[in-house]
Amino acid sequence: MRRYTCKCGEAMILTSDSCQPCQGCKKCNTNFFKEELQPHTWKIVYNQNTGKPYKRCSKCYTVDEESYKEAKKPNDEVKTSAPTTEKTFEQDGKNKPIPKNLKEAITYLFDENKEFIDKITKHEDDFIAKSHHNVGQQIRNDWGLWNGSELQTWFKEQGIHHADDMSGIILTSFHRKINGKEINLEKQIENCRKYWDKVDPKVNEGKF
């Protein structure tokens, strides 16, 4: 662990990770490298309890307090101007349509993620575990699996209500397709629902 401080000593961080140029002190306007403080690179992510959007820096993961405060509010307290459906997502500076079903999701991963495909491991469980917090998180956030996209609606119609299960099924199906195996969607859905029957049955009703 290493301790970092800004130029005036007001801001401090203790971390084993590298610091980013946008982390530091607004008072002296310097980062932890004693250089000029850079602006955050905001990305839209979604509150896992309410499904509402808020801003988080893609470099240092600092959360924008004002948007996060709004994102935590129950539906009837959120401003009516807040977006509830994301029909497109941004990649490489372009707005691209969110897949509407599992088939379109798999096709997108094949067509747009050549580098990702090259890194896929042969073992399915290992691949899913390694992908959950990077590609899986991107899928959940960018494809509106927390906040009412058509893809989320499609999964709900199949009996899948939790975004983690949705991204898991997408990645599992993608991995099986690449390896020439049957997707076996019905069995994947059955396994997800059996899990929640044991852990929290309300999830299978969309109540969480």
DSSP summary, beta strand count: 8
Distance between the termini: 37 Å
| Sheet with the most strands, sense and barrel status | 2 strands, antiparallel
Could you give the order of the helices and strands?
A: EEEEEEHEEHHHHHHH
Q: DSSP helix count?
A: 8
Rg estimate, integer Å: 20 Å
What form results from the Cα inertia axes? Answer: globular
Strand order of the largest sheet: 1-2
How many structural units, i.e. domains?
3
Mean pLDDT: 82
Could you list the spans in which at least 5 consecutive residues all have pLDDT below 50?
77-86
The fraction of residues in strands falls at: 5-15%
Could you estimate the helical fraction of the residues in percent?
25-40%
Sheet/helix structural class: alpha+beta
What does this structure look like?
It is a single chain. The relative contact order is 0.09. The chain is α+β, with helices and mostly antiparallel strands. It is 38% helix and 14% strand.
